[in-house]
Structure formats: C-alpha cells, structure tokens
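Kindly go through one protein, given below as sequence and tokens. The question is how this chain folds according to its tokens.

***
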Amino acid sequence: MEQPAAGLLTGPQETQVTHIEELQQPPPPPVVMDDQEHAVSLVTAVETPTEADVATPPPQEVNATVQTDLTVELPIQQSQSGPPEQLTNEAQEEDGEVAPEVAPAVPVEQAVAVDQEQAVQPVEVTVQEAAVDGVPAEQAVVADATVVIAAGGEAPAAVAPAIDAPADDEPVANPDAVEAPAADAPADGEAAEAAEAAEAADDAESDDDDDEDAAEATPEVFHRCDDAEWMTRKHIPLKGELEERTCVYHEWRIDDWAGLDRRTTSPEFVIGGYRWRLLVFPRGNNTTDQVAVYLDSAEPQGDDSWHVCAQFALIISNPDDPTVHFTNSSHHRFNNDESDWGFTKFFAIADLERARDSRGISILNNNRLVISTYVRVYKDPTGLLWQESNGYDSKASTGFVGLENQGATCYMNSMLQSLYFTNYFRKAVYDIATDEEEPSQSVALALQHVFYQLSISSKAVSTKDLTQSFGWDEVESFRQHDVQEFNRVLQDNLEQKMRGTKAEGAIQYLFGGKTRSFVKCLNVDYESSLTETFCDIQLNVKGCATLRDSFVDYVKVEALDGDNQYYAEGHGLQDAKKGVIFESLPPVLHLHLKRFEYSPERQAMVKINDRHEYPEKIDLAEFVADGEQKEKLGEDGYKYSIYGVLVHSGVMNRGHYFALLKPQVDGNWYRFNDDTVTQGTLADVLEDNYGSGDPEEDTEALALPERQAKRQKRVTNAYMLIYIQDSAVEEILKPVTAEEVPEKILKQLEEERKAQEAEKKAKEEALLCFDARVVSDNDFRAHNGFDLYNTASETTGKALRVKKKDNFASFKRTLAEDHGIPEDQLRVWTLVKRQNDTFRTDVPIPDTEAMTPMEAVREKYGTRTATDLKCYLEVPERPIKANNGRTSWFQNETYNGNIMIFVKFYDPFTTTMRGLGKLYVHKQTVVGDIVGRLNEMKGFPAHTSLKLFEEIKPSMIEPMKVKLTFHQCEIQGGDIIVFQKELTQKETEELEQRKLRATVPQYFDYIHNRLMVEFKPKTENDAHLPTFLVELSKKNTYDEIAAVASAKLEIDPLFVQFTSSSVGGVPKKVILKDTKLSLEEILSPGYVQGNEKTTLFYQKLDMSIVELETKRMFKVTWLSPTLKKESTHEMLLPKAGSIAEVIEELEKRVTLSPEGTGKIRMFSLYESKIQNEFDRDDPKSDHDDQNELFAEEIPKEEADKAENDKLLSCFHFSGECTKQYGIPFKIVVKEGELFSETKVRIRARLGMDKEEFEKVKFVIYDSSDRITPVKLDDKLSEATITENESLGLDHAEKKEKPKPQPANPEAEISITISG
C-alpha cells in the first residue's frame, strides 16, 4: 500500500517534536491508597504547531473546535508473556460501519500491519493546537492527544488493579469473537486432537502444588491509564512470535459529553502509517444502557487486498485523574469489509457518574471524560495474519492448491505434496505406462491424476481414487500412519511399475544412496563389511543439538572390546571397531528425524520434542568416504539446500502432519496443510520447527489462547527434512511442461470433468424438479406377486422428471400424450404406502387443481415423508361421456360410498396369478353379488363357483364371506381381491399329487418364502465340484436342504457339510446338523431381504457329519531339535478326551531321535508367548483354537538334569522385550556354571551360526518389566530367578535395515499398497 502523506503523529521522521526532559524520566508512580498520593500530570509543556502539522487532514464529524495532539511512542518490545486478554462482545452498526451486536460484547475485530517503521528513540512529546472549521476556541468540547511510546527498557509487570477487571455483569468473551486460527494452525480434527492432547500432557507434567498460606493484605494499587509500560503489558501484551511494527497511545478529551451526537468520531490520527479515529455512541448503538466504543480505520476505501492488523486497548477515564479508568482490549484485521472493531457494550451509561472505587471518583466529571487507545500494529509478512478461513482461496493467494483430508490422511497429503514438487519425480510418474488401467485400480495412474489435478485445479484435490487403488477401505483412511513408512511403501510400488519404462531407475537416482557398514579388528588382519542402499536416512534427535551432530552420531565408530568383543572367523573374540560410512549420497535427501523412541524409564514409546537445529544449507562431504563418486563431484558436490520440512504436531498417540515446501529455487516457502495452502517464511521453516527444548517454559501466567499456542508449539517440530543437492537442483526442479503429461490423463480428466458437470446439473435440476412414477392397468395385469405392481422394480410404470413449478394440467396432458388417451378419459390417483407396507390407491387428484403447481400437489396429496410422487392412472374400460363439458366419474366413497377395488385371478393348475382389472362397487353391496361379474371378466360360465380372498399383506391372505357387505368385510377403496375356481375333491387331490399350490393362500405363502440359493464348493479340494442354483423356501429344514444338495451332487446327505456366507461372499460359519433348523434361521436374519439370492458353501466329507460333529481338528507344528518348524499335522480327533490322545496320534506321524528321550512336550503360543504347556492328562478343551499348537521332543539334557539344576524359560525379542517373536524354549541352569558356558549350550540348542549368535545380547526379564543384563562371567545359578522371570535373547542387530518409526507406534498397523 502507498504510504500516507507526512502529517501528525507518524513518528519523528514525519513530525517535528520537542524533547521534554521530564518525560525522559521513568514513568510516573502508581497511586497507592494508603498514602493518598496522586500521580503528577503527564503533559508538562506545550509546543506551537509546525507548518507540517497544520497540513494534516481535518477531523470529520467532530463537535470539537480545538484538538490537542500529544505524541509519545512506545518501545518496540520483544515478545513476552502477559496477563490474559479480556474480550468483550462484537457489534456492528446498522448502516454498515458498525453492525448490530451478535452476542454479549465482543471486539469489532482483530488486525496486523504490513508497513515498516523504525523504532523511535527516547520519549518525545508534541503538543499542538489548531482551530477547526473556524469555530472559536472557547466553544471547544473535544480535545485530542496522541502519545507515541519510544524505545527503551520495559518496566517489570505490575499487579492488575481491581478497577481494570470487568464488572461482575460484564459479558464474557463470545466464542465467535475469539481469534481466528492463524495460517499455520492445523486445519483438521486430528490437529485439534493434537492440541488437546498437548495441553493434557502439559497439565500432567506441570506442578500443581499451590501455596496454602494466605497472602498478606496489601494496599490497593491504582495505575494510571497513561502508564504505557503497565497498560500495554496488562492489556495488549505482545502476541506470540509476531513482530511489532509500532505501538502508539492516543487520547481524546471530551469536554461536553452530553452534547455529543448519537454517533461521533474523533479527529483522525496516524499510527504505523495508517489513519485512524475513535468512534463513540454515547447513548448506545442498538442498546440504550451501554456506551459503545470502537477503533475505526480512516483509510480511504479502494484496494480490496488492503488490510492492517492491530492489537488495541480502548479506555474511558476521568479527565483529571487518569487512575480512574476502565479498559477493554482486542485485536483485529482491519480491511474494507470490516474497517472498525470494538465494543457495543463497552461501559454502562448509568455507571459513568458512579464511583469506580473506594476513593469515590467517577469517570464522568463535570460532563467531561477522556477516551483513549493504545494501538499496537504488527507486521504481516505472509499477508494472512488473522485471516478468516471462510472464503480463503489457496489458488488465488498462492498459486497452489491442497489435498483433501479423508479423515486421517494428513501424513499422506504432506508426503504427496513434497513428491509433487520434486519435479523430476513427477515426470518419472508421468512416464509410467498406464494405458490399459483404471485410476481406482492402478496406483501409478491414480497418482498421475492427482499430480495433474494439483497443477490445474482451482480447489483442493481428492485422493479417494488413489487410496482406493491402494486397496484401502474407508476405515484405513481414518487410520493414522507414519509418513516415512508410507513413502517407502509407495516408492516400492512405483519402482515395480517403472520397470521396463522410461522411468526405470528414477527413484534410485533421486533418492538412492549407499552406506558401508564395517567391523575392523584392531590386533589381527580381519575386516568384515556390508554395502547397502538406502532411500532415506534415519537420524537421532536425542542428544544431538544440530543436524550435523546427528550425522556425526550416525557415523560414530563403536569400540567392541571387553564383554562386547567381536567374534572374527578364524581368530576368535577380538577387540575391534565398528561403524558405518556413506559411500554415496543422492541428489534428494529424505532425512527422517527419530522423534519417537522407547523410554526405559516410562517403559513406553515417547515423543522427543528436544530442540534440534537444521540449517538452510549444509555440506556433508566429511561424512562420505573417499572414492570415485566423491572425486567426480568435487569439493562442492555434497553441498545441499533445504527445500522441504514435513512437520508433526501432536503427541505420541495423536498428531497432525503438514508440509513446508519451497517449490522453486529462488521462490517463496509455502505451508501445505491438507486443503489449505498459505505463504510461509524462513522462520516458519527453521526456528518455529526446531522443537522446544528443555526445560519447558512456564506458561501458567499466560492467557488461555496464548497458553494453548505455547503448548501446541512445544509438540510441533520437524519430522522429515528434504534437502536437494545444489549442483543438481536445476535438474530436479526443472518445470514440468504440458507436453510431458500423458495424453490419456488429459482425456480421462476431461471425461471426469464432463461427468462432474452432468452431476452438478442433475443436482441443480433436483432443486427444481422431483421424480414421479405413474402405474397403469397394464402394469397391474403383468404383475404376478403382491401389491398392485412390482414395487421393488425400478422399471415398472412410467418414470417422469416433473418440474416443481409446472401445474397439474400440464402433468396430466403429458400422461395423456404418453399413453395415447384423451385427457378427459383418464384420472390420476395418488398411491400411498400403508402401515402394512403395501401400496394402494388413495384419492383422485381433482381437476380443480389444474392450475396448482406440482410441488403443491405432491405436498397435498402425496406421502409427506416421500420426496417423489407415485400415481395410478385410471382409464375407464369403455369411454365415459361428458355431461355439460365435464366427464362424469364415479364419486369417491367420501361422497356417496362408491369405491374402486382391484381384482386378481389365480390358476392353481398353472400356478399363475394375474391382475384382471378393477371394479366399481358400493360399500353396502354384498360381496357375493360380484361373482357374476368376476366370471364374466374371466370368461367363465355365469354360475361358476368361486372362492374370494382379500390380499391384506404378504403373510395375511384372508378368505372373504360372500354373504357380508364390502363394508362389513372392511373393504375400502384400493383394496385387492384375489379369486379362484372352487376345486372339487378330485382336483384338490390331483394338485397335491403334483405338489402344486391348490389355494391362493398357499401360493402367496410360496412366493413370500421362496429364495434362490447358490451352492458353492467351500475349499480348493472341492474346486472340481459344481456350483448350482436351487429355489428353496425359507421354511425348508436342514434335512430338506441337505437332500436337495446331495441329490445334485449324487452323494449321501450325511456326507455333506454346509457353511453360511458373509456379506462379502466368503465362508462364515459352519452349520451344525439340526433337523429343526430352517433355512431362514440358518441365514443371517438381517442379510436376507425379500427374495434375493443368497449363497451356501458346501464341503464333501469323508465321514458322516454325525460322526464329524463329535470330533475336533487339532493342527500341530512339529519342531526340530533346534526349534525349526519341521512339519505341520492336522488331526481330527474326538472332542472329548485328554491331550494324551493328541500326542499319541502325533507320535504316529513324526520320527523321534533314536538316542533321544522319546518324550513329547506340547504347548500353545499366542504372539510368540506361551499360553499353556500341557500335561498328558489335561483335557483337550484346555486348548483354545486361536492359539498355535506346537510340539517337540524333550531334550535329553533337560530330562537328565541334576537335582539342583533348574529350568529357565527363554524367548527371542528385538530391541524391546515386549516385541517377542519366534519359538520360546527352555534351558537347564547348571549349578556354578559361568554364563559364557551356558551360551555355548544355548547356541547348540538353537543351531545358530557362531558369528550371528555373537551379536545376541542376553537379559533377565520379569513380568514387572524389570530388565537385568547378563554378563559372560555371571552365574545364572546364583541369581534369584522366580517363575515370573525368563531369559531374553535380544536380536536387535539382526535387522538389516531400520524400520521407520511411526508417529503413533502403539496404534501402528503396517501400510499395504496393493494396486
């Protein structure tokens, strides 16, 4: 923004000032009531106005004739903690300058500046007088003064006086007026949880002890409102890490309060290069009992992007005693839309003349008072400070768009954005061939779509196709994963897809480097080394203050001596040194900072929030071994610059990821926080994410929002760093051109765009239209089931899209044209769903509704809960003649008792039922009177005997009494009557012999319970058997189902077993033979709906199912003498009996050692932990099928142990005792044996390679998680070992590559990408 012209109150560069010696002294002391001492006047000298001062624009809407301007500038302060900020309620006027209050008193807004101004030196004062609009000075009622507080030291914080606190009836802060989240705040539910968790963690760690001694009474202290040091500290303390531009105090003296207009503004004053004024409503703004006061920007309206951010305090005080005052404060982003901010309920009008405290002094004195303000203007380097999130446009503001969060996919979004801006990688992804693939099934194609959408979209891009291509369901999208593990799995998947394409080798080129691990003996000529590749580097944070320290730690050489000597093949145990060195480094470094580690003290994983500094540029040449690559790249070949920081904000169990990235070599930094992209600063990238360090700051004195911000910052730190080689950066970040985007992507996205437009159009139409379905007599005649028509079919009847504004006449005209019927020969009835879930005609829509809009017709005649309209189109069997221009239809039963009923006929010999048509009858007609008409409709002789039934609902088909009236039979309009010929005894017997349904109720029972069942083989062993479809009844018993299936398979019904199907179509539960069990009970009740198809799996048996159900399958893994899994045996044994039967059956299948003990030990494991060690007499029921069953021959050493020897359980683990794996075992602890000798026996027991075994460390571990390392010269026989203790073998060094450490290790589930 262009700077305003020089004038009043803009600082020493813009205003001539007179130095007042007295004001260079410390600020006036506060008034202490015990001494009855009043503060001296602040203004001690008056200066004649200069020519520049008079040039200031005249004040507007001011009754005053004289203004006095006093300028004293506050020092630019360092960010410090201050007391909590008290907010009041927002108000804005009706005319647009200030709007009506929304809730109990809230500041009108919150803001920050973009200009730069230098701090002024010691305290300076300028006092000026000038006539306004020629009004004589003696008529002056308003005086105006501004104080600019100059640079200098800060006074210590003072105790806030009681008079500055809001009164008991002051409204508390409205949540709507609380500061909007800053641009760097996490923007999703997981971030909010992180903040909450951070606060909870901090509260748990804080010292809650309170001093219970009562404080001694102290004199009441009253501070002056012009005591700048104290007032700014208390009411507008510096906010967090924001950089102050300037801070100014301005006061406006009013000498005729009662004479002010309803709305009055002060003379303009300049702060931070911006013009301001105070706005007051002395008799209330939309209230009658409260003074309203606002800070108003006087900048001219124009540039829509104009804004200034300021923190301010508004004060009303006694004109003669500045210690009598009331203050409220806020902050706001002043802009064209919200140019004022303040308080509608600032101060009660009735309290202006009441004493503020025990001194008996009021604020209003002889119709005079002072309204003043402190304004602190902040710099806004990103242009987003206190920007409302609503309406924020990432694309317009930054040129980039974000990614939608599917629930907990922030980790994925952060990594994808970093890969997208690694342009070389993006080009390689585009080069993957995906011509015959679909986005939801191909990871490569879905990623190509995401990358291209990021380059062209104007809004956040969805990743749903991408996660679907991973094979993830919705639950997986709500599961937090580790960002580094995700990156590794994704790159592995893409690397496979790149093989054989132009992109092959791209990932290794970009991210792949090499390390060489070595062990070199000091006293003999022996060295062992292993070269490995990597795509990221894990670096320690704990104990490392800087990134260089972490690299030093990574390549640190370890001495192997003493108890930790190295076993060198052919040389035995030797002193050696062990280390790792980089042989090559890639162009792009992904550095994973290990912020999650296991804490032995807490016996759990914890997050490391220690401060860890990383530079903007780093030279890693010292960590690379001399060799061909180093010589080729030269001395500057390992210089890197930072281009990305992936940040984790939160605690161990919960958190949020966002990314800070620099897309271009000489470009800006940006914060990618899921769907929001904002500009960042270098401070955001470096200082703000180094970590908090220890000890933690004491935040208890801060206001709640600032305390939350501090706590959140302590758990927000860098988790992954992205550095790019300076010599390769031009190649890596070379822009991607349109020609490099595959043509298939462009075509697919164009198709998607068209589909989205069609969907959008359909949604827009849905707001203007509704669906209607019209059923005719043809639909009724074609239907052979319940109801008037097949209600489950979407093709029955005529589907129409009806405009809500069209009238009923046009709707009826459309139906006439569609059916080829004159309009006067049809009538439209509404169809409604009755309480018994059947659809019946309700009422005809009268022609009087001809001009009524269809939306009103639907609401009046349709079902209230339905959004569509279902209708029946009535057409007379013979044309109806018009009478006086109107068609004479029968009247509804409401008028004269006439009703329309529907008729169906059932033929038991063909087992068919069809609708015949409709009848018009009177409710008092006897049912038997329609028999002749029914015979006529069907073409039967007139005296044919019929049986009539009422179709009430599927399970209720009632015979009708022909001697009763329709009214007595409770028949109403729209009901359905089904009839059939009355059968002779012979006809009935014939139908029974043919197993046909002789009566209408039998037929309805059949169609109600029929179910198509697909029988499929259950196991691969039966894959040669057929899959077949059979129609069954839900009432069929188990034996009937078995008989049908066995007949198809041509086997005995007792030699087939059934298994139910899950919703996903896989075998679910074995069905036990039960002669009383029906098909409906066999199937899940909630799964079978209506007559849809279901599946039963079957399995051919080698024995009768009766015998099978008395047995149980035992699956036992047989272990070799060295505990290797040798074979697996499945044994079907009787359920009853002891474990001895299992062991005896196993003995028939395995070979025991000729020189062994011949005894078998059987035990069960769950997650490598022994659950049960069985005695032979234990019942089989003691074994739980969820546990694995193992067996081994008891070692001879164990069987022959001496009387004083003990057995000690042993287990394998890696790094942490809780992470057990493998097969646990037992060893004999021999009396007086050194552990070095015990180790030899353990190695023999396990059959391990000597070199590999030497890497194993041993500990004694008990159930209380106590760990005791074991040394070679220890004697286990001398240790106190209880049954709860065991020997742990730590194979920590067995892993070839370190796994990434998850952000939530306790809840971590491995990531799989299958597409």
